[in-house]
# Entry
Amino acid sequence: MNKILINDLLVVGDEELNQYYMELKKQVESAGYHLNPDVEFTKSLLKNIIFNDNRYGYEACPCRLAVNDKAEDLDIICPCFYRDPDLDEYGACYCGLYVSGEILNGEKKLKPIPERRPSSEDREKLKTNSVNGIISSSSIPIWRCRVCGYLCARGEPPEICPICKAEKERFEQFI
Ligand code: SF4
# Structure
């Protein structure tokens, strides 16, 4: 591994970064997601995720300010709670690390993505209205894969079922 320590922080070497990229790409594609096809851009985000993991002990979002408290930053550990709604609405996550199939295939253009994460004050208020500190999702529909029965709560069904790989059209709204 090609790792360098500067001021006690790990600087990620090319070899480790390439390995991390290849493993993540394989993993996300098998779950029906897509990394940004701009490999250099994607690797620059991954480098910062690894850096954050070394600094905080968790893989905080590379585009947001973490507070070095895992419980407080739980919603922005990559992949964050906001990835899927942003993929559904804008075709990419806030950082642009994940993109939709339409963006990947050039059928849709990327637009600026507004921050979906509530302010710290609003997150505090939401916590009091949620179960186990997880932001309430009671208004989010539940989708069921009609092939394997996989259930997920999100704005739209996933592009591909992460379990049986059935396509989006094969999901039905369950609740
Ligand atoms: S915005 Fe993208 S890169 Fe940032 S945490 Fe969410 S999924 Fe990861």
